[in-house]
Amino acid sequence: MRPVIALLTDFGTQDHYAGTMKGVILGICPDVTLVDITHDIPPHDVMAGALELAAAFKYFPAGTIFVAVVDPGVGSARRGLAADTGDYRFVAPDNGVLTQVLRESAAKKIVELTERRYARPTVSRTFEGRDRFAPAAAWLAKGGTQLAALGRPVTEIQRIDIPLAEADGDGVRGVVLRVDRFGNLVTNIERKMVERLGQSSAITIDAEGRRVERLVATYAELPAEGVGAVFGSTDHLELAAPSRSAADVLGLTRGAVITIRRA
């Protein structure tokens, strides 16, 4: 199978940045398959990048290399990293963007990108995605280059605080982690945490003091008015409104507290 490199950035598609990274990769490994996860991470939003990467990576074929560049510290002393989890490899700045994927799939090896032969001859202080991260991923995809060749091993990396939902005897307390492009409020509350409370008809859902009408199985079953709840594709609870933005209806965004109780 041809090697696969998947890209996730906050570069957007208006400028040349994402396309230029692809050009660098193809110059080193012409037979690679390039996949765009997204280039629409909000600028500098490391947590959003970490969550979108975690939502996507496990659905790629084993051996895929991921390049995640959401990098407000570009050009600073922050390190560049390559990590190997066994099934996948990741190339990214050391700023927490790998927090969630390494929470779900522990790294077997992590190195700092210090070996200059696997970067472009001149590394821009403002575009390391092109000059450092893209070449490192391409050399890994090309074959014959082991992760250890990219630089010295590291044991501790930067991680960001991505909160976990908390459960007690009669309920679950979580928060909204992200708002998707449809305005759905995606929480950190997993399906199994809710199901242990009993039937959906026997629970109440509160969003910052506002009652969410009911938990349903599909978006089509959401209440015609107001906001309901559904388990999304990552098996986390979402608050959604039919053909409208639940975020706008409720006036909520990331960090909003969601509480579920037995009725």
Explain how this protein is built.
There is one protein chain. With 263 residues, this protein is an alpha+beta fold. The protein has 2 domains: 4-150, Rossmann fold (3-Layer(aba) Sandwich); 166-262, Elongation Factor Tu (Ef-tu), domain 3 (Beta Barrel), CATH 2.40.30.90. It has helices at residues 17-28, 46-56, 99-104, 128-142, 191-195, 246-250, and strands at 4-9, 33-38, 65-69, 80-84, 89-93, 109-112, 166-167, 171-179, 185-190, 203-207, 210-212, 215-216, 228-231, 236-240, 257-262. Strands 7, 8, 9, 10, 11, 12, 13, 14 and 15 form a 9-stranded mixed sheet that branches. A 6-stranded mixed sheet has the order 2-1-3-5-4-6, with helices on both faces. Helix 1 links the parallel strand 1 and strand 2 (33-38). The radius of gyration is 20 Å and the shape is elongated. The N and C termini lie far apart (52 Å). The model has no long low-confidence stretch (mean pLDDT 96).
Give the end-to-end Cα distance, rounded to a whole number of Å.
52 Å
- The figure for the number of domains is 2
Helix share of residues?
10-25%
Spans of at least 5 consecutive residues whose pLDDT stays below 50 are: none
Q: CATH homologous superfamily name of the largest domain?
A: S-adenosyl-l-methionine hydroxide adenosyltransferase, N-terminal
CATH fold category name of the largest domain: Rossmann fold
Q: Name the CATH architecture of the largest domain.
A: 3-Layer(aba) Sandwich
Rg calculated over all Cα atoms: 20 Å
Quaternary state of the chains: single chain
What's the level 1 CATH class of the largest domain? Alpha Beta
* Beta-strand segment tally: 15
For the sheet with most strands, the description reads: 9 strands, mixed
Structural class designation? alpha+beta
Count the helices. How many?
Answer: 6
Q: Which percent range describes the beta-strand content?
A: 25-35%
Tell me, what's the shape?
elongated
